[in-house]
Amino acid sequence: MNSANSSTGVLAAPVAQQAVATLVAIGAVLLALVTLYAVFLDQGQLLSPVLGKVAATANYLHELAHDGRHLLGAPCH
User: Fold this and answer.
1) What does the pLDDT read at residue 74?
2) C-alpha to C-alpha distances, 42 to 15, 37, 49, nearest whole angstrom
3) 10 Å Cβ neighbour count for 42?
4) Residues 2-40: pLDDT tens digits?
5) How far apart are CA 55 and CA 46, in angstroms?
6) CB 3.0-4.6 Å disulfide test: which of 35, 56, 58, 69 passes with 76?
7) In sequence order, what are the residues at sequence separation of 6 or more whose Cβ sits closer than 8 angstroms to the Cβ of residue 61?
């Protein structure tokens, strides 16, 4: 009975590590998608909850990524 508990504990650690690794990978993919959206498509929508109407007119994220967009060949005008 003691050996069954130890074998269960040994198997639980790799499963937990795999679950954590999967969650980290999913988080990284989501962060990458949000970053790509912010760089290529955002026209003030991401900052509008914080800045209000100014976000659409000032367009800080667009201007921050403007040169990078042209360098990568992405249209922004």
Assistant:
1) 72
2) 39, 6, 13
3) 21
4) 555 555 555 667 888 888 999 999 999 999 998 887 777
5) 8
6) 69
7) 38, 39, 42, 44, 46, 47
Q: Are 67 and 41 in contact (CB under 8 A)?
A: no
Angle at alpha carbon of residue 35, lines to 31 and 36, rounded to 5°: 120
Residue 59: exposure state from Cβ atoms within 10 A (0-12, 13-18, ≥19): middle
Single pTM value for the model: 0.55
Per-residue pLDDT tens over the stretch 33-67: 988 877 777 666 777 777 777 776 777 776 777 77
d(CA 33, CA 17): 24
For residue 49, give both structure tokens.
């909850």
pLDDT score recorded for residue 28: 97
